[in-house]
């Protein structure tokens, strides 16, 4: 088996090019390092007939994707936080009473209404999630919507 140091020397530039093709220079160096750390751990289990370059490129591609995903979840620092309130509002501010009515539904009705009307799943998939038959899920969703309409009509400004 070829010493790992020679593998790094031979294939390092290729791995760095793969990382650099999709990442910034700094992130590419990190992904390059992560690639060879992972490869070092798995190298003893690699078959003798394996295509080492293809194997390393596959690891590099996955490490680059990991870096992209991590960057997408990392908050971006800003100089000054705006003083004013958001123009988008707070999600539960408007029509909070509707969310309260939905929360007051029996468990099965609430889940059937949410999965069918809010998520858009067909009743057969809703039934698979909450348990029971497709007809039972359809009935629970219909009963839930009917209960919401009746309760909403009692709220000042609410119309059924």
Textual characterization of the structure:
The protein has 160 residues and is mainly α. The chain has one domain (4-153): Butyryl-CoA Dehydrogenase, subunit A, domain 3 (Up-down Bundle), CATH 1.20.140. The chain is built from seven helices and no strands. Helix 5 (107-118) runs antiparallel to helix 6 (123-130). It is elongated and about 75 Å long.
Features:
160 residues; mainly alpha; 7 helices; elongated
- The CATH topology turns out to be Butyryl-CoA Dehydrogenase, subunit A, domain 3
Number of strands: 0
How large a portion of the residues is in β-strands, by DSSP E? Answer: under 5%
* Cα gyration radius (Å): 27 Å
- The level 1 CATH classification is Mainly Alpha
How far is the N terminus from the C terminus?
A: 75 Å
Q: Describe the sheet with the most strands.
A: none
**Structural class of the secondary elements?**
mainly alpha
The H/E string reads: HHHHHHH
Layout of secondary structure:
Blueprint: H1 4-22, H2 25-42, H3 52-73, H4 96-104, H5 107-118, H6 123-130, H7 134-153
Task: Please outline what is shown here.
The chain is mostly helical and 160 residues long.
């Amino acid at each position: 088996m070829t010493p790992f140091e020679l593998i790094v020397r031979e294939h390092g530039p290729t791995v760095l090019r793969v990382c650099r093709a999709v990442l910034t220079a700094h992130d590419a160096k990190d992904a390059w390092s992560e690639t060879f750390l992972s490869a070092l751990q798995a190298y003893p289990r690699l078959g003798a007939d394996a295509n080492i370059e293809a194997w390393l490129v596959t690891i590099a591609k996955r490490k680059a994707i990991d870096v992209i995903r991590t960057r997408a979840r990392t908050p971006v620092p800003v100089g000054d936080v705006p003083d004013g309130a958001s123009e988008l509002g707070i999600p539960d501010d408007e029509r909070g009473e509707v969310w309260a009515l939905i929360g007051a539904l029996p468990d099965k009705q609430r889940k059937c209404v949410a999965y069918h009307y809010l998520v858009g799943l067909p009743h057969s998939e809703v039934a698979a999630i909450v348990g029971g038959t497709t007809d039972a899920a359809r009935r629970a969703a219909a009963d839930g919507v009917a209960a919401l309409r009746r309760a909403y009509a009692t709220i000042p400004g609410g119309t059924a």
